[in-house]
Amino acid sequence: MKKNNLKKRTLEIIPGLISWGIIFILVLLAFINPVSCAVISLIFDFYWIIRTVYLTSLLVMAHRRLYRERNRNWLSECPDNNLYHLIIFPVYKEGPDVLGPSLEAIKNCNYPKDKMIVIVAFEERNPGARDNAKALESEFGNIFYGYLSTFHPDGIAGEKRTKGANATWAAKQAKVFLAAGGISDADVIISCFDADTCVSKEYFGCLTYHFIKSPKPHRASYQPMPVYNNNIWQAPSFARLVEISSSFCQMIESMRLEKFVTFSSHSMSFKTLVDIGYWPVDMVSDDSVIYWKAFLFYKGDYRVIPLYTTVSMDIAYSNSFLKTIKIQYKQKRRWAWGVENFPFLISGFLTDRDIPLIRKIRRGFHLLESHVTWAIWAIILVFIGPLPIIFGGAFFNQTAIGYNLSKITGLLFNFTLFTGLAWVILSRLILPPRPKGVSWLKNIVMIMEWIIVPFIILILGSTPALDAQTHLALGKYMEFNPTPKSKKVV
Amino acid sequence: MLSEQRIRGVLFYLSVVIFFTGIPFILSFALGYKFNSHTFKFTKTGLISIKTQPPGARIYLGSKLLPEKTPATINELLPGVYDIRLELERYYSYGTQVQVEPRKVTRLEKVILFPTRPNIKQLNQGKIASFCVDKEKGSIYYLNQDENAIYESNLDGEEFKEISNLPMGFNYPPKELKVSFDREKILIFNNHQICVVYLNQKNNLPYYQPPLILNYPAQEIEHVFWHSDSCHLVLITDKNIAVLEATPKSNPTGIDLPAPLKEGSHQINLVNLNSKALGVFYEVNKDVLYFSDYERGADGIIYENIYKLELNSKPLY
């Protein structure tokens, strides 16, 4: 037990240690050997620019695909089947104002409602849960094949207050419901959605199509493209840009199939979920860890299939600028808490005998590299890059690299203007129509606002990830801290 | 999807190739190396950074005219000594020799090119004996010897106007002309006379303070400074250091107006000097006077010392 705990703690420390180690070494070099620091800085700058150009190319490809497929009538292309869709909304304090539009979107989608079961999974500890459940049941209770409200009890042994615990409780209730209805687990596709998730009309058709066409439908999760269009015209620039960037990152990831991991709202086979033992009940990043759980369970024979259809969510913001930054920071830190997948995955790899070593190394490295890069990239570009010039002293300033550093860096970053332009154009293309009451001038604002991206990078580029990794390394575990969801500003 | 993955694969490997091909060139350039395509070796080089005021000068490296104009950087120079000449129409050319060291930058960044026909404009009207510039107020004060008057203009010599007259008896040439910090008075002195002129006096006042002269026939005036309060003068002669009061006093009319200074009155001799001070510096922000004087040491030898005299901490009268 003690040995296991030591192993777990060691693995938890590794990402934070690497990130802080890189930062510490570079800062130290800036003082004791500024030329080396400048050389590393230049290499990183060049690497980052090439990476940005490469990833932007993937974004363009993903966007083309999404544009092509989002209005396709998937349902008409689906062969006859007996598939049911089970949709779970794990919620905490969200009420009908948030859930109403999400359920309405499901109601409006073109999949037969008699093949759909909706579960709104409340937390029993929320005093308003029962009233919210009643209100929603009265409106949506008779539309689908099944509609359940579940109430996850607090304080179950081994559980933490996480979304995964609530979703697992609801999924277990669903299993009983399905068994009572004589529906096989293998015929059910489960979608676990955030409370504010509004699916597109074609979502379930698209999901069904890909499930049927997949050679191993139970060995895959199905990931739609998350966009934050619910209140995108109302949100302030800062929050809007952050969430557009999040959408873009997810679209980019959808093109890197071998690294693609589930995120936020997604779907999978209910049979698979039952087989692997549901979502973890003690981890915050349930959306991504469920993928790794399945990956380990099926000895690496598990993948994520991108669905080029959108699910739309709310942009979290407040009417105060500082509060908006705080909300966004906390949300990004929760996402970055996905670093807890690293010890989970490596622990799994260490006990596994079937997954090829090279595959373990690749997946483990990708996971670690992505989190470490997240935690250091903005710090290197923004803070460490200029350090040799500031602290290098007269000697460094007399060297060729001391003279050339800022000039070459400036020249290199001019190339990013082209990628920035591509992001601006693509951001316009994923926008929903301008709502009534919003001035057309907002279109200009939404283009001009991209000039604040450096400021966003400064605040939200790396610090939330470094914060999360530091907490994990210190053993200060994060509780699930839901982002305030509201159609109105909080 | 398959073709997209193929394109992605091509893009990925292309990126890898660009990175590994580009980084040696970027680093070698940054570090001051030049790639020799004949020998396939990197050679250590240095560079020269040139900036001129005004910019746009042609650059000659030896006898070769370079395509760049200042500000410019001449890269990939083999170590050695180079003749640099900078030329700009209507400016004197600038030439120098610079030493280029490997992997280092030689900076030639403080070059000022002076015009061959400088833009000179006469500001005064009439024969002037002395002048001073008040940069903050944007004024120039002139002492007109012909008219024995003080004139004021802006920094371009415009808005020229007479502001006061000097009393008869002031001997030319003056040593210096100084405006008080409150800009209410002007001090003019020569070797044996101090003259204070009061400015900004309204014509309709019942009391007019005429300029006055203090005579020091037995002493040679070296320096006179305005104290920061603009009410006192710090006087350094060849014999002593003294402080004179120049504070306006109440006059019988009850209106606050400058009162006349009288020779010998309101003057405190602070230091008797053994010799004429060789150097004097007055720090006006702290009202501290630094001066030198000779003094005979206990060993009988005469030493020159530097002294600091604080004029701010003690009441002066």
From TrEMBL, chain A:
Spans traversing the lipid bilayer: 12-32, 38-62, 372-396, 408-431, 443-462
Name of the protein described by the UniProt record: Glycosyltransferase 2-like domain-containing protein
Species of provenance: Candidatus Sherwoodlollariibacterium unditelluris
PANTHER family the record matches: GLYCO_TRANS_2-LIKE DOMAIN-CONTAINING PROTEIN, UNNAMED PRODUCT
Keywords, alphabetical: Membrane, Transmembrane, Transmembrane helix
InterPro entries listed in its UniProt record: Glyco_trans_2-like, Nucleotide-diphossugar_trans
Gene3D superfamilies, A to Z: Spore Coat Polysaccharide Biosynthesis Protein SpsA, Chain A (3.90.550.10)
Domain Glycosyltransferase 2-like stretches: 189-426
From TrEMBL, chain B:
Superkingdom field: Bacteria
InterPro entries, per the entry: PEGA (IPR013229)
Keyword terms, alphabetized: Membrane, Transmembrane, Transmembrane helix
Entry keyword Membrane: yes
Domain PEGA: 46-110
Residues annotated as transmembrane: 12-33
One Pfam family cited in the UniProt record for this chain: PEGA
Name of the protein in its database record: PEGA domain-containing protein
